[in-house]
Amino acid sequence: MSAKFDIVIIGGGVIGTAIARRLSRYELDICLLEKDADVASGTSKANSGIIHAGYNAAVDTLKGRLNIKSNPLFDKIAEDLKVPFKRIGSLVVGFTEEDKEWLKKEKEMGESKGIKDLQLLDQKELLHQEPEIHSEASAALYAPTAGIISPYKLTIAQAENAVKNGVEIKLLSEVVDIRTKNGYIAGVILNSGEEIKTKVIINAAGLYADEIAAMVGERYKITPRKGEYNLFDKEYGDLVNHVIFPMPSKESKGILITPTVDGNLLLGPNSNPVEEKDDLAVTKEGLEEIWQGGTSLYPNLPRDGVIASFAGLRATLPSDDFKIEALNEPVGFIDVAGIQSPGLSSAPAIANMVAEILDDIRTSLQEELKLIEANFLPELEKQPSFQDYKQNLHEWQQIFLQNKKYGEVICRCEHVTRGEIEAELDKEFISPTLNGIKRRTRAGGGRCQGGFCGPRIAEIIAEKIGISPLEVTKSGPGSEILWTRVKDVKPDRDIVYGMGDKS
Amino acid sequence: MIRRKHELVIIGAGPAGLAAALEAEKAGIDDILLIERDEYLGGILQQCIHNGFGLDYFGEELTGPEYAERFIEDVIASKTKIKLKTMVIDISQDKKITALNEEDGMMFIEAKSIILAMGCRERTREAIQIPGTRPAGILTAGTAQRFINIEGYLPGEKVVILGSGDIGLIMARRMALEGAKVKGVLEIMPYSSGLVRNKVQCLDDFGIPLKLNHTINRIYGKQRLEAVDIVEVDENLQPKLETKKRVECDTLLLSVGLIPENELSKSMGLKLAENSQGPYVNELRETDIPGVYACGNVLQVHDLVDYVSEEAEVAARAAADFINDNLERRNEEVEVIPGEGINYVIPHKISYKDDSRKLVRHFFRVSEPQENVKINIYDDSQQKLAGFSREIVTPGEIETIKLPEKLIPDNTKEITFVLEDEGEGINE
Q: Which residue, among B357, B333, B353, has the nearest Cα to B411 in the 3D structure?
């Protein structure tokens, strides 16, 4: 017998999981399908992590309106989901008189949209805020409501909270076809051959939204636009204090520099259309381009401080706007496509909009859907993380006394303990891969990039999940990190010279 | 919450920490705490199961674990207290150490003297920014070594190695011995950065090609590594694109340099030396905080563990003298400057008077390979103090010079090491 749900959401990005969480308020059977080994595996894992103030998006666009609606919602979301979020404010930095004029107009436009507390800074004020900035930078537009968030932590937390409220998430489940019946949505077919019956499909497939839509005859083209990034060591996290934008171009808001919520420094992205939807290769030219962009704002960026380079892809439509609507036919198909920047900033408002659309179409479905408020639990519990207790070691000792695994440091660079890693693997919604652990705990994400702790994390995953270390992957099947067993060589020195023997 | 006090705390129980513990006890310190973050003593030596260790120090050829064992047995038998699986989180300038482990939780430890022996870590792919995808199968040579020799797993079977550092060369042979096909070792420089003996024994003897002036300029593969583009570089290290060739492989090992692990040194505000990548030290391996010493790979990346042990002993004797207030400073500190052709010299300065010692041993690396050269040493009035001949020097091998103490004038503020052609200047 095939599984049956009221709603199937395709895509476990920040949008799909925001929608899943939003709709989990109702007494509905919801299933979220994700083709990769974890949520946040596409655009949501590799972007700037900025919650934009919204002053620069045109109000005649859907993305502009949703960004403005969304920005104030993040404080509550971050608090409920225990996702680090900081309203550090943004600065658009100008150099010339012409730039200054433009910034002034931009401020007026923002104010007319109701964005509060925008300020023009002169050179002295700018230098006071950003002492390391290019000495010729002469003015800036300051937007205090802009913020930074970890896009993948937000996505994962939304997924966890959705699961807590009854949503079923199926990982490694790619939709290969959609079934309709008499003009109504009937179900989806997975790559495994399994069929899942449903009345409603919400297409939040990101870069692949066009391919999903094509399965029901809706034709449009998503073009991936690549953005490349450099991530710097935490040592340089306080080089800048705000999200720093250059003067924007037509295609994008430009190559920005920002601290991340985890305390690193992030530089990027450029914006170049590419052919393939999985072309996540960083290029020499691209890295050079962002370096040029970065040093034009901060001449002292440390080349040696880069600990990771990566690329992300924006899912863009020819209209350059979001496409959020229910199709007339088949009934029950809601498109949430073309979610490029400011998609992350707009996620909660997008989820609300989808809920409204669902309310609009629910009576026209072959079988009416009732939106009955369930007993929604909006919060996640805070997981203890040693990083957060560095100034409060006595409190960490209390956590340690509850569970001694919080004393064993596995990741040396980021100081992540075994307790933190095992807690993630004990959750209801998990992705037992090295990347899954890295995104949840930061273990393996530091300056040595898992060189020391990779083998130990693989061992913990294998032990916890009950698989062989040979089956542990970086990011799902095909990315196994080990090849074959050589021999049993593990030394027993920990027994011979174990703890406590000589202390 | 555990609070402890010790005369000497040593951070890291690899070859440097072990040798320091033994030597400090020999010098009369009997309240020593040795802290190690791994679950066993010996550090990276335990995964270096090849031989070649100990020729200088013990006069015989040992494997890494054998070399470590000689120290471990004595440390276990000594009065030194050991904390394994213990991570030092922070050290303050007044020598208060914060650490964490699964036995005690948070620990606060006060020390009279501290020896930093944290070793080094490998540079990663990110440090050299190779374009391409980020699949599984790309790892540092040392991580691969741990997987094979400690965990017992082979990480792949069609292998390309980037960088001719010693671990890369050793791992080329190790992977070949386990049945992997090692397609070659690429080195961007025109010379190997590893020891000559490793090139001969690990590559030549196994028919593994070493391609100098070559690098990788793209990585392919979505989930698992599928191939790399290798390319020759010109004299400015820029790729000659017409030489690009795709090589299929499932594993890429990186041996592109080692970085001393100085996060703790930075957190305690120690002065660091840019050229040697470690703390700025005097001849006793004392940092700019009196009573805090650094030795082994946290100070400078060594080629030979034998030198690490010796350096640790210097630091340990000094720590003992510091604790017992047995040291006499020179009137003027002498700065040791790496001049033309010299990458760095350790010590960075000479601070103490010691009538009992006849020689001050200097370690240095040259900037590029040269033959038939002299290393000349000048004082601050450009007066030549000494000259030492070498038939061949290369950045891959540390050079050492024992400079007679009596040759260092009392009133000079600096001495400069300069690499010059044989014939320049006077002979010693």
A: B333
Residue B128 burial class via C-beta count within 10 angstroms: exposed 0-12, middle 13-18, buried 19 and up: middle
Kindly compute the dihedral angle of the four CA atoms of residues A490, B38, B22, B94, in this order, to the nearest 10 degrees.
180
Average confidence (pLDDT) over B52-72: 96
Using a CB–CB cutoff of 8 Å, tell me whether B78 touches chain A.
no
d(CA A103, CA A95): 11
For residues B359, B272, B164, B48, the Cα torsion angle rounded to the nearest 10 degrees is 70
Rounded distance between C-alpha atoms, residue B428 and residue B419, angstroms: 15
Residue A391: alpha-carbon gap to chain centroid:
28
Q: Which residue range is the domain that position A268 belongs to? A: 85-147+223-311
For A229, the token pair is 């990034």
Whole-angstrom Cα distance, residue B163 to residue B140? Answer: 10
Per-residue pLDDT tens over the stretch A159-216: 999 999 999 999 999 999 999 999 999 999 999 999 999 999 999 999 999 999 999 9
Do A347 and A304 share a structural domain? no
Question: A398 and A251, same structural domain?
Answer: no
> Quick check: B6 contacting A, CB < 8 Å?
no
Q: Is residue A223 a contact partner of residue A316, using CB atoms and an 8 Å limit?
A: yes
pLDDT for residue A278? 87
pLDDT at A322 over 80: yes
First to last CA, chain A: 61
Asked whether the beta carbons of residue B156 and residue A483 sit closer than 8 angstroms, the reply is: yes
Cβ atoms of A184 and A364 within 8 Å: the answer is no
CA distance B290 to B282: 11
d(CA A43, CA A204): 12
Whether A52 is a known active-site residue: answer yes
The residue type found at B144 is A
Q: Write out the DSSP string of A227-294.
A: EEEEEE-GGGTTS-SSEEE-S--SS-S--EEEE-TTS-EEEE---EE-S-TT---B-HHHHHHHHHHH
Choosing from B211, B239, B256, the residue where a domain stops is B256
B16: closest CA among B299, B425, B423?
B299
In terms of Cα–Cα distance, which of B350, B329, B342, B339 is closest to B283? B350
Cα gap A105→A100, rounded to integer Å: 9
Interface of B with A in 362-381 (CB under 8 A): none
The distance of A461 to chain B (nearest Cα, Å) reads 15
Domain end (from A311, A332, A363): A311
Domain containing B389 equals 328-428
Number of Cβ within 10 Å of residue A217's Cβ equals 12
| pLDDT at residue B292 greater than cutoff 90 | yes
Spell out the residues 6+ positions from residue A103 whose beta carbon is closer than 8 angstroms to its own: A92, A94, A120, A139, A140, A141
Which residue, among A234, A272, A289, A447, would best test binding to B if mutated, counting the most B CBs under 10 Å from its CB?
A: A447
In chain A, what residues touch B1 (CB-CB under 8 Å)? 394, 397
Residue A221 touches partner B, C-beta closer than 8 Å:
no
Q: Torsion angle of alpha carbons A460, A465, A468, A472, nearest 10°? A: -70
For position A153, which CATH number holds?
A: 3.50.50.60
Query: 3-state class of A301 per DSSP?
Result: coil
Q: What is the mean pLDDT of residues A465-473?
A: 94
The pair of structure tokens assigned to A200 is 């409603």
